[in-house]
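[audit] Reproducing an earlier prediction to check determinism. Same input, same settings, fresh worker. If the tokens differ from the archived copy the diff job will pick it up downstream; this log only records the rerun itself.
[audit] input (259 residues):
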Amino acid sequence: MPENTAEATVLVEKKAGLAIVTLNRPKAMNALSMALRGSLKETIDQLESDPEIRVMIITGAGKAFTAGIDLKELGTKAGALKGDDVMGALGRFSGPVIGAINGVAITGGFELALGCDVLLASTAAKFADTHTRVGVLPGWGLSQRLSRAIGIYRAKELSLTGNFLSAEQAEQWGLVNRVVEPAELMPAAIALAQDMLSAVPEILVSYKQLINEGFADNFTAGMETEQRFFRDSNRQLKPEDVAQRRESIRARGQGQTNT
């Protein structure tokens, strides 16, 4: 388990069956660097193997949930798109996962949020899918999960424009369960986790699995389609093109998050 130090990219707090996992790169808006992704995967896998942990909360340090894949790495030839399997680890966690969305959740960060079972958002939260503006296709399930969460037409609006979605609108569209003031986010998430922990342990796990498997009757085929498009697209991806787009996306996102 990653150590709880100021330098750790992932912090973990355990309390009575609950693990609070905090993405900890606040100065970089918790951008999902290779180091953070690797640490997050390791953390989730270790929590799944801990018999004492039955519910997990994921949140971000500072003002962002996560701004997504670290664009500085994506714009290099270091293979930032390769390797770790954060979403696979998240899918392997058998208990409920609560996303406490404290700030912006952008692209890969949006995908991470969609991988959770329940979403609570602070009034400061915003969501955006900027894949079309970065010039890459999703590989963590966004193309399939978002339309199932809010409907295909709303999903197309978000994904094909790259526009930001406020917490309040996300609640109206059914993306998040509810919106609370920033100071109330973690207390609300912990209270919800405690309600889940009061259920019969083995039924809690089985019921989550039952819901997921029933809902995903056609989901697997959709994910396979996404992976095929993702692989074909990334064969043609030029890191220098991504790097050139980085500043315009950052400037546009800053303007929208300040509104």
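[audit] rerun output stored. Observation attached for the diff report: Residues 10-183+196-257 form a domain with the 2-enoyl-CoA Hydratase; Chain A, domain 1 fold (CATH 3.90.226.10).
[audit] end
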